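I am writing to request your help with a piece of structural work I have in hand. The matter concerns a single protein, recorded as an amino acid sequence and a row of backbone structure tokens. Could you please explain, in whatever detail you think fit, how the structure tokens follow from the sequence? Thank you for your consideration; the sequence and its tokens are set out here:
>
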Amino acid sequence: MNKKVRVRFAPSPTGGLHIGGMRTVLFNYLFAKHNNGYFILRIEDTDQNRFVPGAEEYIFECLKWCGLEPDESVMHGGEYAPYRQSERKEMYKQYAEQLIKDGKAYYAFDTPQELEEKRKTILNFQYNHASRNEMKNSLTMSDDETKKLLEENVAHVIRIKMPYDETVSFTDMIRGEVHFNTSQSDDKVLLKADGMPTYHLAVVVDDYLMKITHAFRGEEWLPSSPVHILLWQYLFGLENMPHWAHLPLILKPDGKGKLSKRDGDRLGFPVFAMNWTDPKTGELMHGFRERGFLPEAFINFLALLGWNDGTEQEIFSLDELIEKFSIERVHKAGAKFDYEKAKWFNHEWIKRLPVTSFQLQVKQLLQNAGVEINDDEKLKTVIQLIKDRCVLLTDFIQQSSFFFQSPKEIDINAIKPKWNEHKKQFFVELIRTYQLATTWQHEALENSFKEIAAASQIKPGDVLLPLRIMLVGGKFGPHVFNIAEVLGKEETINHIKRTLQLLQ
């Protein structure tokens, strides 16, 4: 590639960042970094009616959590600023006016009410080559009439004049040659009545001015391609148009249709990178971060939604993804969302990463659950002991809280059915032996336990579960003698005594 690679992600600040958007970010980022290029984030806020406070900040926080920081953006600056479209408003009009001068666009003075009336009376009404000559626009009015309305500041938009029955084509980096007939596209609005551009004009102008070399977007934008191709041709020449790739959809778990924001709550999994609360409705959309996902696992999972490197490898670090990523290996077909697979990735990353990389998150989760942590070294030991058992970071709450505070509940009912005086005497003897212990290591504790069991003619398995329940409150946790070692002598003995009293 001769030109320096420049890619962009251009979200609208209209709500939370769906995982489809996050995957687009990821593929942009990987392609840029693989080619030693630049990743730009541009805020496309031309639709002021849909602007949601806090959405822009949320987008940047999501990217920061994932480690996908832009090289240029509203937050990071750059030589092609401003990176917020509303701050670039004045520069778009000249391009729209140029299109009118060249006969490629026109003024349209139809009111919203008139357009609504057309939609009511004509099924599937489109403002296009077939209907434009019956509408109120500069194509049906004289130059003097048009000039008069413009001088009187009558509300109007500027629409592209789509040619009749022409073929436009481009080469998609994923799909190959794609062809469109222009008659199937309507005359899109390019400049709105408030002077703001629509996405169609702004994306072309900004990509040109910001020297974007490659543009990756979801396949739902394919139908808009003929409009954008013609705008490139009319304004800047097709030789300046970025290489395009239209990414496959992320599908519902059953493969039937695009995964939507509503599917998550309906099916019980997150579809946002992080929790998002709609400030207008107060509705909470759950995020992967708050569910207990590591960013490494989230990124790994996303990367394999529609891409692979051609091998059987599934676990990739971000650096490995950058090294191996190729847009040609992105699939054309949609990728099924599989939450169980996402959890599998998270479990693998919890097992692989050093404890220090997520110790702070676990500490915060425990403290949020009311578990006070005063010993970070002990926490580190505990996490190392139990991390192989935890699929999500939130699992550490149940699997580790008993190391720092006595269990609030003891599952006595799991002990009672097979409880008897003989077993009670075993634990009385175990307490006495543990009180006299001079070393407190799991091997020695287990040996003592087995010796007492043998002397009492009890199978160790018959008293192992009651000991576990005494220490942690239920049927879970790592190896029981590792638990006792970390708890320490005093706490272990107190836990056993407390349960014996409950069993009286």
Notes: DSSP finds 20 helices and 13 strands in the chain. The two ends are 79 Å apart (CA to CA). The CA atoms of residues 80 and 210 lie 6 Å apart.
